[in-house]
Structure formats: structure tokens, C-alpha cells
Amino acid sequence: MNFITIMGLVAAACTTASFIPQAIKTINTKDTSGISLAMYSLFAFGTMMWLVYGIFSSNIPISLANGITLIFASIILYYKIKYK
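Request: output the structure for the sequence above.
Response:
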């Protein structure tokens, strides 16, 4: 594994991990009043597109980061829609 791939994995881990506290808080409180439905919908779509890009370009850091981030963003989006 080369240095650039390692840098990409570290960046992916940091940005992906940043969603964990929000997902945990949303699951525990079911409070999504401070979250924009339009923003999270667009974000989840963009993340899905990055995931597809990462898969088709065989880019492991992009695929891994966006796959995991999409899971967290989808959880938050699900709670936003379910608990208006």
C-alpha cells in the first residue's frame, strides 16, 4: 500500500468518523429538528454518487469512506423522515 492510499484511508476514517456522534445522538434522542431534510437528502445522494464513482474507479479509500458515510447519513435521514 503506497503513501497516497494511506493518506486517503486516514482522511476517509476522519471524515467518516465525524458522522458517528450525530448518528448516535439522533438514534438516542430521535430529535432531528436541527437537521435540514433537503440538505441531508442531497448529501446522501452525493455520497451515494461518490460511492459509485469509487467503485467504478477502483478507489478503495473513496469507496470505503462513502459506503460507511452513506450508512450513517441514511440512518439520520431515516430518523428525520420518521420523526418529523
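The chain has a mean pLDDT of 92.
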